[in-house]
Amino acid sequence: MLFLLILLGLMTYFMLQRSVSKITRTPIWILWLVMMTPALIWTTWMLIYGEKQLPPGLIIIPFIFCPYLYWLLVQWGQQQPNQSESDRSTKDNSNSQTKPKIVPTQTLNQTPPKLTIDKTEEASLRNCFPWTVYYLRNLEFRPQAVICRGQLRSNPEKAYQTVTENIEGKFGDRFLVVFQNSFQGKPFFALVPNPRGKNDETQIPQESQKPVLLALGLLLITLFTTTLVGAREIVGISEDAIQSNPNLLIQGLPYGVALILILGLHEFGHYITAHLYKIRTTLPYFIPVPFFLGTFGAFIRMQSPVPNRKSLFDVSIAGPIAGLVVTIPLLIWGLSHSNIVPLSEESGILSIDSLNPTFSFLLAVLSKLALGTELTYNKGIDLHPIAVAGYVGLVVTAYNLMPIGQLDGGHIVHAMFGQRTGMVIGQISRFLLLLLAFINQEFLFLAIFLFLMPLADEPALNDVSELDDKRDFLGLLMLGLLVMILLPAPKMVIQWLNF
């Protein structure tokens, strides 16, 4: 419990340092303390009272009060002007609080340079907006952006393409053209300096110039750590036995290879789709650890902006789909080679020696399909190592499909419904998961972690054009899959499956 608390604290501080420190002068340690207060309270209760049920007030009150206090502290920090700032810049900063984030700075991996534009260029800029496409009303000049407000008079894709081509024709690659909806739902353009400019190829971050050796090295190390954990924690070989006979590590190889395959295909789904849209990314990097699952997963990092919501959707959904293509067959095969054991008081979501499959609707169906009539209501499953990898893959898929912030599900709902509605869906999802934690406390850590995750993700350059019906339908299917993984199997389904 203490290890998880320390890990959560480090991850929270890292996220705050990377994101919130750029938009507020409130000390990060204060924001960190406010965000960590619910976790500190709940962990203290569990350490003192053990398995005793948490009082509902102790769960709900910190979960509601701390986000509000956090928001107030961030706003207070934004409203503190520098002594050298003029009244006009103070007003501009105050107004910017009510607008969506314009520049995907984390995606570009650097803070945009200060924007400069003279009167002659201002006249040229106004001519880039045909009145039949986007009727320009006024320009707002800010240190790092020019906000172009007006009325949209054609479909968003045509407007963005026309304006972008006109601006590139007059200004070259000096600017990135951003097309977003304000919080009032009115489309506006924003010009921000292009941090790469004409020397695009020469300004690629150093880490992306030699990625292959780094990615391959992390892959091999992660293969070793997952194999070690598979032999030690899943097969049950002792440390002394492994040290005296290293060949015993081979018994953990099925788990290690299966897990690497699942996580790797998930990330390569993102990687390949991103490159189809000419979005620059790093190779997938694995995170090895010699405990827990043997890894903290894998990730890629985008190094150029996402062009539109269609590409945001496709890149985001490609990972879970690619991962599921291998997760489901491996899980079914592993379940069919697993042993059926009696349920005990220790049986639960995290008990791979006596897993109760009915906590998840999808897992219950797959378990019944693999094990048949041998699996009954009062029986659990002692998972085969490959089944453990498939089970982890299912959990990772559910986590990534949560419609919150930077997760795949957060990008998906953003692409489907827009950034503002996506944030509302994310907040509702966090509260629903908290309610689910009342039914099963093993979801509590996930609820805490998602509560600490920012709701907003990075906008696409064209964040106004909507998706087609096929993508909307596919997105709803994936969200339905998330529900099937998280919710327990209803009694009617259990009876129908003859548990």
TrEMBL record:
Instruction: List, separated by semicolons, the cofactors it needs.
Output: Zn(2+)
Localization per Swiss-Prot or TrEMBL: Membrane
Give the membrane topology, semicolon-separated if more than one: Multi-pass membrane protein
Which parts of this chain are annotated as the region Disordered? 82-113
Ranges annotated as spanning the membrane: 28-50, 57-76, 212-231, 252-271, 283-300, 312-334, 431-453, 473-494
Which CDD domains did the record assign? S2P-M50_like_2
Gene Ontology cellular component annotations, sorted alphabetically:
membrane
| PANTHER family cross-referenced by the UniProt entry | ZINC METALLOPROTEASE EGY1, ZINC METALLOPROTEASE EGY1, CHLOROPLASTIC-RELATED
Q: What is this protein called?
A: Site-2 protease family protein
* Originating species: Okeania hirsuta
